[in-house]
Amino acid sequence: MKTIFIVIGKTTDKHIDTLTQEYLKRINHYMPFEIQVIPELRNAKSLSQDVQKEQEAELLKKNLQPGDYAVLLDEHGKERRSIDFASWMQKRIASSPRRMVFVVGGPYGFAPQIHKLAQEEISLSQMTFSHQMIRLLFVEQVYRAMTILNGEPYHHE
What we know:
By secondary structure, the chain is an alpha/beta fold.
């Protein structure tokens, strides 16, 4: 199974990008994992929130394939402890969809049509994080999950 992490817009903070790339390398030791960056909308400030979400939805749909197991990272999704997320990942991997795709939306979240396409929604916290920070936090949690599943001494309970 291949795991894809779709994000909108480039990371402009070099430090966050460097750490994200480090965790990406670590994850690939355990499973195929890649980040796909969708370009930000042009002239987004002149668009309403709903129009932005709809235009982002069209871009996101182009990156989803039939048979994908799509998981939205959304503030209204289900929260899990790291150990529970690891168990959840193990079940998803065992059910072997062709691709598991995690998606971070734009600054205003997802259009309704993207919510309908997704199989699940996950929240990393009730707190709000920048879209750049959430990338780093998420890839660290995927790495943590892989170390938990492999009995490696990274996570401490």
